[in-house]
Amino acid sequence: MEFTKGHGTGNDFVILPDPDGALDLTPGLVAAICDRRRGIGGDGVLRVVRAAKHPEGAALAGDAEWFMDYWNSDGSFAEMCGNGARVFVRYLLEIGLATPSGAALPVATRAGVVRARVEGESIAVEMRRPRLYDTATATLGGLTLPGTAVDVGNPHLVCALPAGLDLAGLDLTRAPDVDPAVFPAGVNVEFTVPGDPVDDTDGHVLMRVYERGSAETLSCGTGACAVAAVALRDADRDTGTVTVDVSGGRLTVTVTDDSCWLSGPAVLVATGELTPDALLA
Ligand SMILES: N[C@@H](CCC[C@H](N)C(=O)O)C(=O)O
C-alpha cells in the first residue's frame, strides 16, 4: 500500500492514494498506521479518493473531483480537518492529480466542499464561517475553565487561560473533561492566551489543543479558526484577520461575512510502501 507523509505546522498525516475507493481501510488499520512506534505515525490519515467513488462524497462529485476521507489517529472519523485539507491539496498538486490554476481548487469533505488556493509557500483553505453556539467548561487537573463552543464543521471548545497561567504549564497528557450533554460527539479543546500585536492582523493568539481522536497535537487548523472567531467576537468584530500561533508554527485565519480562510505551510516529507499485514500482526 503506497503512502505519503505530510504535515501542516506539525499536524501530521499519512496520505493514502485510493482514487477508486478500493482500499479496505478499517479503524484498526488506521490506528496501526498512526502508531508512532509500530507504524508510520501520524495525527490522522487522509485517504485520497474520487468523490464519485466514496459513499459520503458522491453527492458532492458534481462540485469537487476529490474527497478527503479524514480519519483521526484512534480510527474515528471527523467531519473536517483544516490542516489536513491544506496538506491534501499540496498532495494533489505535487502528484499531478490537480493542476495549479488561478481558480480555487474544490475538495469534498464530510463538512461539504472547501476551496483551496496556493499562496506562495502556503496553502489556504476556505471553510465555513465558524459558528459560536454555546458556553461550556473544560476541566484539566484541578482547573475548570469557561469556554465558547464553536462549530467549524467539527466541534470545538475555546477556553482562555486566566491571567498568570501560561500555556506551557498545562498538562495535556490526558483529555480535558467536558460536558457530554453539550458535546455528545466529543470535542476538540483549544486553550489560549493573548499574543503581542502582529503587523497587518487584527489579533494574535497563542494556543494549545487537545484533539478529539488524536490527543494533543502540534496544530489544529479548524481549532485555529475557532480561536480566531472567538478573538474577533471578544474584540467586538464580525470579521478580520487573526494570527494564531500553535505549538508547531504560525497560522493565519481570515474570517469574512460568510466564510473562513485558513492559511499556513503544508509540506510533504516522505513516500513509501506500507505492509498492512505486518501493521496488524
Ligand atoms: N487537526 C485537524 C482536526 C482533525 C479532526 C479533529 N480531531 C476532530 O475529531 O474533529 C485540523 O487541522 O482541523
From TrEMBL:
GO terms for biological process: lysine biosynthetic process via diaminopimelate. Its main location: cytoplasm. One of its GO terms (molecular function) is diaminopimelate epimerase activity. Its EC number is 5.1.1.7. The record marks H156, E211 as: Could be important to modulate the pK values of the two catalytic cysteine residues. The active site is at C81 (proton donor), C81, C220 (proton acceptor). Gene3D superfamilies: Diaminopimelate Epimerase, Chain A, domain 1. Substrate binds at N11, N72, G82, N83, N154, N188, E211, R212, G221, T222. One of its GO terms (cellular component) is cytosol. PROSITE patterns: DAP_EPIMERASE (PS01326). The keyword Isomerase applies. Pathway: Amino-acid biosynthesis; L-lysine biosynthesis via DAP pathway; DL-2,6-diaminopimelate from LL-2,6-diaminopimelate: step 1/1. It catalyses: (2S,6S)-2,6-diaminopimelate = meso-2,6-diaminopimelate. It is found in: Cytoplasm. It comes from the Bacteria. The keyword Lipid biosynthesis does not apply. PANTHER family: DIAMINOPIMELATE EPIMERASE, DIAMINOPIMELATE EPIMERASE, CHLOROPLASTIC. Homodimer. Catalyzes the stereoinversion of LL-2,6-diaminopimelate (L,L-DAP) to meso-diaminopimelate (meso-DAP), a precursor of L-lysine and an essential component of the bacterial peptidoglycan. This is Diaminopimelate epimerase. It comes from Micromonospora inositola.
